[in-house]
Amino acid sequence: MGQNFRHEYKFQINPGEYQRLRARLKTFLRPDPHGGQKGEYRIRSVYFDDLKDKALWEKIEGTDLREKFRLRYYNDDLSFLVLEKKSKINGLCSKQGERLTAEQASCLFHGDLTWMLEEGGPVSRELFIKMKNQRLAPKLVLDYRREAFLYPAGNVRVTLDKEIRSARFWPELLTTSRPTFPAAGGAMLMEVKYDQFLPEAIRELVQLGSRLAGSFSKYAAGRAFW
After folding, report:
1. Distance CA 13, CA 151 (A)
2. CATH 1.20.1250.20: does it fit domain 6-225?
3. pLDDT tens-digit profile of 135-193?
4. Closest by alpha carbon to 141, among 174, 100, 119?
5. Residue 52 — pLDDT band, cuts 50, 70, 90?
6. Measured on CA atoms in the order 70, 72, 19, 180, is the torsion positive or negative?
7. Does 1 have pLDDT greater than 60?
8. Burial (CB count <10 Å: 0-12, 13-18, 19+), residue 54
9. DSSP letters of 31-82?
10. CA 172 to CA 141: how far, in whole Å?
11. How many CA atoms lie within 13 A of 170 on its CB side?
């Protein structure tokens, strides 16, 4: 998975806006095939941070140059685990990632990092260094449901996230369950991502009156109580 810088804008939306946007997007855009028959999928992410919550505070303060590490999987499928590094530079976002096995992820969650230098790719090796030198560690489990829609011109991807829930990280999360709790006061989120340009048709399709893109962060919302 290579590095590609993209524009990314986030809009916090209410249930009424969610329903209107969903109807528009379903009419004019192609649904993400990963959504299956229901058109949506569940995402679980594990976010890493250091002892001073550097990633959290950089997001809250809007630091121009920042990064965060997370491990992500979909629909409880442990055969497809992705370790990601997400970077933001002057408003542009990029993501690098690599597949992990469930055994590797379990070792990572329990503090066994020996495999990362021997078997891991660039993201694993960088995370290893930062876990050793900067004391990065898993901090938060975040769950939500996503509907995604695609538009080929501009490589546009519009996502709608709902039922955002969080819990404090626990090392056995791949094999045991714990309750998660509503985050962000039940807020929903629309994200609009594209490469070099956003087609005017899409700009009009997702318009929300005079509302401007915000800095809503699912990670920051999830950390409110943890």
Report:
1. 21
2. no
3. 999 999 999 999 999 999 999 999 999 999 999 999 999 999 999 999 978 889 999 99
4. 174
5. very high
6. negative
7. no
8. middle
9. EPGGGTTTT-EEEEEEEEE-TT-HHHHHHHHT-SEEEEEEEEEETT-TT-EE
10. 12
11. 11
